[in-house]
């Protein structure tokens, strides 16, 4: 989160994804003047892991601060949920921090009726 590049929203996000083997990959949100190339912390963390050969994940934790520097909850956007869906099972755990309290969700809960395709 400290390395967040978010000059446009001021919303700093940090994500840490845990692989099934037990390694952790961290990511932050990286914004862009053209806005749409912005990439969320969750996808950066997952992309870093996949780039290093890890494709099986157990959990992700997400934390955020708004432009006022207050700790706020960041719930994964739809694009990130779909990227999680590519690599993770229904029981993939999502830990979100809300007002100092950590809440646990599953991928099936936050992305019901997800589109899955068999990889040939
Ligand atoms: O779960 C979330 C929600 C938002 N953002 C980023 C995208 C953008 O840079 C900023 C404001 O939406 O926060 C994330 O990285 N993860
Ligand atoms: Zn996202």
Keywords:
alpha+beta; Cytidine Deaminase, domain 2; 6-stranded mixed beta sheet; 3 helices; 21% helix; binds zinc ion
Question: What this model shows, in words?
Answer:
Strands 1, 2, 3, 4, 5 and 6 form a 6-stranded mixed sheet that branches. The model has no long low-confidence stretch (mean pLDDT 97). The protein has one domain: Cytidine Deaminase, domain 2, CATH 3.40.140.10. It has 120 residues and is α+β, with helices and mostly antiparallel strands. The protein contains 3 helices and 6 strands, in the order ββαββαββα. The site of 2'-deoxyuridine has 15 residues, from α1. Its EC number is 3.5.4.5.
Summarize the structure.
It catalyses: 2'-deoxycytidine + H2O + H(+) = 2'-deoxyuridine + NH4(+); cytidine + H2O + H(+) = uridine + NH4(+). Keywords: Hydrolase, Metal-binding, Zinc. With 120 residues, the protein is an alpha+beta fold.
